[in-house]
Amino acid sequence: MVDRLANSEANTRRISIVENCFGAAGQPLTIPGRVLIGEGVLTKLCRKKPKARQFFLFNDILVYGNIVIQKKKYNKQHIIPLENVTIDSIQDEGDLRNGWLIKTPTKSFAVYAATATEKSEWMNHINKCVSDLLSKSGKTPSNEHAAVWVPDSEATVCMRCQKAKFTPVNRRHHCRKCGFVVCGPCSEKRFLLPSQSSKPVRICDFCYDLLSTGEMTACQSSRSDSYSQSPKSSLNDVSDDDDDDEDSSD
């Protein structure tokens, strides 16, 4: 099916439409053999609240962006190579239902579909694309992924010292290794995580100690599945502004 569509006019036209929706700021998406598998709106769990994002699944990449005008204009284009993707289902809780984790070495996050059927279709198609890619390349699935950030709403106090209360002055920060919400004094150190950045990034004292002594596995498992406890935010609270988790200073 995918091979038949690869060089079809219909597929080329569909990809061209997606390119045009992102405008000059987006990267070109048309390459030989690339097929647009599907598209739709998913709710992405960002740092401060869930937000609607437009997603496009190709046979080799996953693309998403902010919705400016539905089906006409998107910005803040993100491109994720599917070879590096693993996905895990998330249990339903409260308003947050039909979700799964998209995990990569550089960035990991939770998304939610409108229905259980839509979730199943997205996950099945993503898994099929990843499986096909790995089969063709002979590579093994990625066993390293960036931490999924705990949303701000999950923490009123630092998740490490359990003492510092967050206020407009005492800001929340995120450890790039475990994803915890931490205070400034608990995350003053930097450590080089090559899969995430070419420069040392903010990590909490706990992860710094583990990384410095080579106990990276323990650090990674400190919150491997935090989304068994989903945030209390409402899925209705969405907006089209920039992703909150893109600010490297946090």
From TrEMBL:
Q: Where is the composition biased (Low complexity)?
A: 221-237
Region ranges (Disordered): 219-250
Tell me the superkingdom of the source: Eukaryota
Please state where this protein is localized. Early endosome membrane; Endoplasmic reticulum
Residue span, PH domain: 35-131
Enumerate the Pfam families for this protein. FYVE, PH
The answer to whether UniProt assigns keyword 4Fe-4S to this entry is no
Q: What does this protein do?
A: May play a role in early endosome fusion upstream of RAB5, hence regulating receptor trafficking and fluid-phase transport. Enhances cellular sensitivity to TNF-induced apoptosis.
Instruction: Report what the protein is called.
Output: Pleckstrin homology domain-containing family F member 2
- Per the UniProt record, the source organism is Origma solitaria
Q: Lineage from the top down?
A: Eukaryota, Metazoa, Chordata, Craniata, Vertebrata
Q: Which gene encodes it?
A: Plekhf2
